[in-house]
Amino acid sequence: MPNRDHWSSSLGFVLAAAGSAIGLGNLWKFPYITYHNDGGAFVLVYLGCILVVGLPIMIAEIMIGRKAQTSPVGAMRSVVGRAWAPVGGLGVLSGFVLLGFYSLVAGWSLRSFVQCLGWSFGGFDPAVDLGADFGAMASNGGLQAFLGLLFMGLTTAVVAGGVKNGIERVARILLPVLFGILAVLLINSFRMSGSGEALRFIFEPDFGRLQGRGILEALGHAFFTLSLGMGAMITYGSYMSKRDSIVKAAGVVVLLDTLIALFATIIMFTVIFSQPGMREQIGKSTAGMLFITLPSLFYTGVPLGNVLAPLFYMLVAFAALTSTVSLLEVVVSYFIDEHGVSRLRASLLCGIAIYGLTILCGISLGSVDGISNFEIFEGKAGLFNTLDHLVANWLLPVGGLLTTLAAGWFIPKAVSRAELLDRDTRFFHYGAWSFFVRFVSPLAVGTILFFVIFKGADFS
Fold this sequence. Notes:
Blueprint: H1 10-21, H2 24-36, H3 40-68, H4 72-80, H5 85-122, H6 130-138, H7 141-160, H8 163-189, H9 195-203, H10 212-224, H11 232-237, H12 246-273, H13 286-301, H14 305-339, H15 343-362, H16 369-373, H17 382-410, H18 413-420, H19 430-455
């Protein structure tokens, strides 16, 4: 495609791809599952899974995208074979559905940011029941629609701006700001009384406390946290210059994503461990930990909490935005490349369609009984929870498994070698990558599916 837009540099790709990977999974889910799997040993297993599962699949997805220079459907069709086009279509569908409910959660971060600004300037009342407040917000369909509209509007505006002038420009602004906010929060956390306990909890492994479910969760999150299986890395890879190193860029993206998750976990655990008795009060849901437990802790015992609380939720909102942008771009690129629709029109139409799904998800959290109470998957009532379960447990693992099988077994080695081996791959061993992407990664993702299908595991 001679007129196809590209990132302005390798740094542009790294920032955009890192923005896609760095999202609520880093700032929300990873700290939660680390806590409930007793820290140290779980973190060590997770880091191993990132290296042997996440990184090889990310390299494969970027390779497919750059080779094809088109969206996931066309990329799978041209690089792997016509029969593989539906695998790309599965990625587009995953992006559409995931963004439908993800934008709601992203909107909650905006609300928390505004709330914290109000508390910082007007004072925080410790008697406020934040659990009841969050429940009232979630069941307010009108408020959900408004918050979703704000985030989808921002996301659509960025994607409509294009690859260089929209996605990359925003990533170049938000990622450094995100890292700066995280650095401020991290440095401050070392001044708090709970920092030593938090660091020991996270980095001292005790394998006697690690259960089989913890290993499975580490494996699952290592796959999900990198935006794999949803076409995002194929799409972003399609805008990558042939001069840039896929292996080097993928390595930097994985490193940044992992560091952000670890730093966020240190910050959150330090805040929690610094206050006596708070470990036992952590909610039973990821939402409870992020939107109910933490806000009150910032204002009732954290030094400079009135400054740090708004900064933290600004961090969460920025991370969410860079992820929603990548999800919408997967869908928009499909209509641009496969149907010749202009970027502006595709962005608006896709943004409106996804926002329609967002409204339905918003009213399924308690404001409309029929859409809030139906149950397809056991224990997952309502549209929001149903779609969350569908994407995390079915669409992404299936898409990831098929993609890694395509890269390892159906793409000619001459093609993958030509794409991956360059002057910046002195420390990259093609044979090792081929082994992992052909055997280890499919086995790992297949294990996720096995436990979902036969053991009732839940990664949502």
